[in-house]
Amino acid sequence: MRLLSCHLRRVRLHNDLELTFAPGLTVIGGPNEAGKSTLVEALHKALFLRSTATGQGVEELRSRRHSGHPEVDIRFEAGGRVWHLRKRFSGASGTCQLSHDGGLALSGSAAEERLATLLGMEQPVEGRGIRQLPERWAHLWVRQGEGGANPLAGSGERYDRHRLEQQLQQRGGSEALRSSLDAQVLERIQEQWALSFTTTGKVRAGSPLAEARRREHEMALRVHLAQERCSELEASMERLRMVNTRLERIESVERPALERRRALHHDLKLKTAELEPHEQRLQLLQQTLQQLQALQQQRERQLLEQRQRQGQREQVVADLEALRRQLGELRSGHDRLAAQQRALLERQETSQQRLELARIEASQRQMRHHREQFERLQSEAEGLKRSLADLAPIDQEQVRRLREAEQRLARHQARCEAMATSLELEASDQAVELDGIPWLPGPAQILLQPAQLTIGSGVRLTIRPGGGNALQEAQRQVQVEHRAIEQLCSLLRVNGSDAAEAIERQRRQLENELANLRQTASTIPWNGLVGRLAELEARRTRLLEALGPEWGGEGRDEDNDLASLEGRLEEGRLQILDTTAQRESAQRSLEAALQRDQALQAQLSGDKLRVDHLEGSLVALEGRRQELLREHGSLEQLSANLQAQAGEFRLRQQALESLRQELRSLATEGGEQVLSVEELRLRLEQEKDDLLSRRGQCDQLIASLSASDPATELEFRQAEWEAAREDLGAIERRSGALSLLQTLFLEAQSDLADRYGTPLAQALGPYLAALGQQSHAPQLGYDPQLGFQHLELRQGSEQFAFERLSGGMREQLAAAVRLALAEVLAPAYDGCLPLVFDDAFTNTDADRLVSLKQMLALGVRQGVQVILLTCTPLDYIDLCKEPVLGTLISLSESTT
Q1: Do residues 698 and 189 make contact, with C-beta atoms less than 8 angstroms apart?
Q2: Buried (b) or exposed (e) across 635-652, using 16+ Cβ within 10 A?
Q3: Host H or E run for residue 84
Q4: pTM score, whole prediction
Q5: 361-365 LR contacts (CB < 8 Å, sep 24+)
Q6: Would you call 141 helix, strand, or coil by DSSP?
Q7: Is 290 exposed, middle or buried (0-12, 13-18, 19+ CB in 10 A)?
Q8: What domains does the chain contain, in order, with CATH numbers?
Q9: Spacing of C-alpha 781 from chain mean position
Q10: What is the C-alpha to C-alpha distance for residues 856 and 770, in angstroms, rounded to an integer?
Q11: How confident is the model at residue 554 (pLDDT cuts 50, 70, 90)?
Q12: Per-residue pLDDT at 672
């Protein structure tokens, strides 16, 4: 199948576009937005989309500029004939007409079906199945942005897998790689396997295998239930035995032990009541002894503290006398430093006034200098402004416009000269006239208009220059540009762009100099200069009056005087700072001494109060001590009485502890916690009631479970389960045999599948060699279920998957694969297939372009029709110069 020509009407921006395709290579050039992708899309939809389709697929073809429905005409070769296809996409009223040079004419659905057959498809794409459209001839139709995509990725429909396998079988030799019997056997195996399994390998619901597994699981569940009933009966009987045993123990052992504990508990209460008075007397004696000992210790501590406070008070009185003598010395030093600071400040003020006077006089001199400098800059600026006024007002934009007009004029004149006719009369034996004017041998004449050439009296020729209307348009443009240049020159008062550029350069230089003068003048503080001078003079007069007549003498050295004044002022400032620091230090020392005096006086008062308080406290403590001694005797008598009471208390406590130990032993004989007798009794009665209730429940459950024989039922359910397991095993063995047979068959086919990849790799090798790669570089896998996959490229000693290659290498390898596919599939399509590239090589640089063109030339020589749409058609012009390869078309010139 080979495309011959196409004619687009009202398709997006194309109102009427007609193109003829070369048998080999057709390069269609044009800038972005020129409609290249629109052309590719229109051709593809005309071949594969039904004319009556609706929806987005048809709306994308409609023109927003031109009214009417889109129409596409295509002439192509297929089946040994030349066919003419015309489609009009207008929704439900769309039309399709197909005819060939033998006179056959079809329309409507018949034409659509015949077209699909010629293209190797079952049926055209409906509007509802628009998503299927990109799958049609995806290996031959490379859309913009898809140049680096793997042509063998996706489903087999993308690269015409069925016909490709047929052609590869024929290339692989006379031995069939996959016979029809193989396909029937595999299909039968898969049908039987699919009765039990889904495509993902899971067991199919409702299949015999699923039913057998369900029945086996149900029988196993019934066996489990029967086992549980037997176990539950045995467990109930065991629980009943344990309940009876526990009831017997309660009546025979635990109830008598509880009565014994009740008697012991009564004896314990009596002895505890007898022990309480002795314990209270013992505690009273211990408290009295502790009070006496505490009072004795407190009295000793307060006596020691009283002596210490008395010594501290005497030391504070001595420190206070010494501090008051130091205060007098600090006050006299502080007064002396204050007088010295006042004298220094007066002298510093005089120095400051003298320094300010010197600075004012220096500022007056600087301002007078600024005034003279500003007047000089004003004079220079006036001269520059007069020079600018003498020049014509020309800027860079006007010069540029004039120069561009001259350049356009030169281009149009060159175009006129290129289309004009040149005549040269070298010699003549007859009279020659050109437009009625005698023409003598000499220089050549350039004709821009039709002219009459007369030779002698019997020969009259009309000579017309080439170009037709284009020459007249070029002459008109020359006149228009002449008038535009004359108007610009008249406006600018120059005779050309060179003179205008010289004036503009001179004006720009003068303006720069004027801007520099203004910048210099802006740095001079001239604003209010006279006023500031008057203000400084008034301040100078006031300072001279303050300093007195001795400072206004003539002949002073102003600079040395200013430096000397600043030095003396700094020296005085340092002296004042030093004196101020000394005075502040003396002030701080004086304040610290005053604070210390106040602290010592406060401490003296506090010590006196504390001593008085301690004396009163000692009197109170002694009174309390004497009262306790009168009531309880001396410490020795109190200690002896305490020891006697403690011995009697320990004897009674030991007897009480023996009773408690006996009670604990009775309470923990059964491993229980220590509880009261009443709590134990209530607990025992509650446990007995619970046991009686549980015994009744166990009797009832045993009677219920014994209604039918659980052992007999268990044997019956186990027999059913064994039968179900045997059935399941038989079905699983058959399903496993089918799975194994399918796996072995596919493995056998996979062993032969490499022979599919070998012919395709052989066809791909020459194209990779044109790209500078080794002919054995490509590696291609084949799976009988999934088709071709794992496209890899060997570079050196490493193997790289298609996705790991660079963008430019992916584009070139994908193009090589597409060329090889078109070459291999060509015999199934009347010896040729069209391969379309729409701006597919965006990552191909100048170095790779040479190899790419060699690969395309090889494909064309192998019989592949290549249609290349690109923004840079000049890159492929050398291919189009070879007549055997193809032609170059400019889309912008062919579009109307």
Answers
A1: no
A2: eeebeebbeebeeebeee
A3: strand 81-88
A4: 0.42
A5: 361/540, 361/558, 362/558, 362/562, 363/536, 364/533, 364/536, 364/537, 364/540
A6: strand
A7: exposed
A8: 2-178+752-894 (3.40.50.300), 421-465 (no CATH)
A9: 36
A10: 9
A11: very low
A12: 46
